[in-house]
Design brief:
alpha/beta; 11 strands
C-alpha cells in the first residue's frame, strides 16, 4: 500500500528553485528497468503505458486489460525503494473510487490520466472530464499526485488557448500537475505562464534536453515510451549479432 507521506513528498519535488533543474522522471516498463534507473539515483520513476503494454503483449491505447496493467505496475513499485507514479491512460473504464483503490494497493504515489478516448482519438468533453477528475481527486485526497494529461496537441486544434482552458478546468478539479503532451517547445512558456500548477513536458529524441525544457517552463520532464524503444533497439542489435 502507498505510504500516505510519499505523495506529499512527491508533490514537493515539483517545486523547483532552479529552472534548469526540472524533476526528471524516467519511464520504466518492468522491475528490471525500474531497478536500473533507481540504482543510478533517480529519486522517482514513472511507468509508461505503451512500454508496459508492449512487455505484456498488447498494443498501446487502452488495449491492456486493467488487471494485467495494475499487476505490472505493482511489480514495478515493489521492486524499488523510490516512489513510482503510474501512467494509466484514460482509466480503463474503471470508476474513480476503484482507480484510486487500485493505485494505492499497487503502492504508487501518483498517476497520469488523459482526456481523450484512446481507441477513437477523440477529446473528451472538457466539463465531463473535469467532473470525472474531481471524483478521482476527492477519492484520492492527498494520497496521490494527479497528473492531468491535456491531449489538444494530439487531437485538438493545437492552440495555447485550448490547452490552457482545459488545464485550468482540471486544476479546479484537483489536478496537481498539467501535462500538455506533445506541445511544441516554443509554446511551453506561454502554457506554463497561464497555469497555476507545475507543467510536465515530454522529452523526445533529438529535441531539447531536460535542462532546456526546464528553462522553457517545465517543472517535470518525462520520456513516454522512448526509453523502452531505445532499449529494444539494443535487444534487436543483440539478436542480429546472435
Amino acid at each position: 500500500m502507498t505510504d500516505p507521506k510519499a505523495a506529499e513528498s512527491f508533490r514537493a519535488m515539483h517545486e523547483r528553485t532552479d529552472p534548469e533543474d526540472p524533476l526528471v522522471i524516467p519511464n520504466v516498463w518492468d522491475a528490471g528497468s525500474a531497478r536500473a534507473f533507481a540504482e543510478r539515483g533517480f529519486p522517482v520513476l514513472a511507468t509508461s503505458s505503451g512500454a508496459v503494454a508492449a512487455t505484456l503483449g498488447y498494443e498501446d491505447g487502452g488495449r491492456t486489460p486493467a488487471d494485467e496493467m495494475f499487476a505490472a505496475i505493482a511489480r514495478i513499485a515493489r521492486a524499488v525503494d523510490v516512489p513510482v507514479t503510474a501512467d494509466i491512460e484514460a482509466g480503463y473504464g474503471l470508476e474513480p473510487r476503484e482507480i484510486v483503490d487500485r493505485l494505492l494497493e499497487a503502492g504508487v504515489v501518483g498517476c497520469n490520466l488523459e482526456d481523450s478516448e484512446p481507441l477513437t482519438g477523440e477529446l473528451r468533453d472538457v466539463d465531463e472530464h473535469a467532473s470525472w477528475l474531481a471524483e478521482v481527486s476527492v477519492a484520492a485526497g492527498d494520497r496521490l499526485v494527479l497528473n492531468a494529461r491535456v491531449d489538444t496537441f494530439l487531437y485538438g486544434d493545437r492552440s495555447v488557448e485550448s490547452a490552457v482552458r482545459r488545464a485550468r478546468r482540471y486544476i479546479e478539479a484537483g489536478a496537481d500537475v498539467i501535462f500538455p503532451i506533445l506541445a511544441p517547445v516554443e509554446l511551453l512558456p506561454d502554457i506554463a505562464e497561464c497555469v497555476t500548477r507545475p507543467v510536465n513536458a515530454l522529452c523526445l529524441p533529438g529535441g531539447p534536453r531536460p535542462a532546456e525544457l526546464g528553462k522553457l517552463g517545465a517543472a517535470r520532464v518525462t520520456f513516454g515510451h522512448t526509453l523502452y524503444t531505445r532499449a529494444m533497439e539494443g535487444v534487436r542489435g543483440l539478436a542480429g549479432e546472435l
